Amino acid sequence: xRTIILFCIVWIPVFCYAQQSFLELDSVFIGGAKMIDQGxxxxxxxxLWQKRRNEMVYLTPYEARAYSINGTVxxxxxxxxxxxxxxxxxxxxxxxxxxxxxxxxxxxxxxxxNDSAFMKLTKRNEYGKxxxxxxxxxxxxxxxxxxx
Length: 148
Hints:
Helix content: 10-25%
Largest sheet: 8 strands, antiparallel
Distance between the termini: 52 Å
Order of helices and strands: HEEEHEEEEEEEEH
Structural class: alpha+beta
């Protein structure tokens, strides 16, 4: 009995830790994939997968849907930054009824998503008025903790 308990105490955390990285392609999910961290800026442009011991594969956001490195999840999304459209991996910072994403290039960019909308959080609107607080308040209108 002690052997079984000791086995569970030692090996269950190891198995749980091994699933912190994954790779999701169009029709394949690879749990425990060996993903290489390239830094926030490069992680937004491509993901680096160590497929085999001596084989590294770069995947663009057009080839992979999502990936994770040590618990940090990156999701491929089409976005517009300064009038330029493209597909990038956005770092998912919070996930739930509202999902918050982060994108790093020359500046910091935040995006928010619920089940009906995906939008960029801008600090000010076209009139110079602070805008992100109003956006967050309208998206969180039905949340019980934000209306107090």
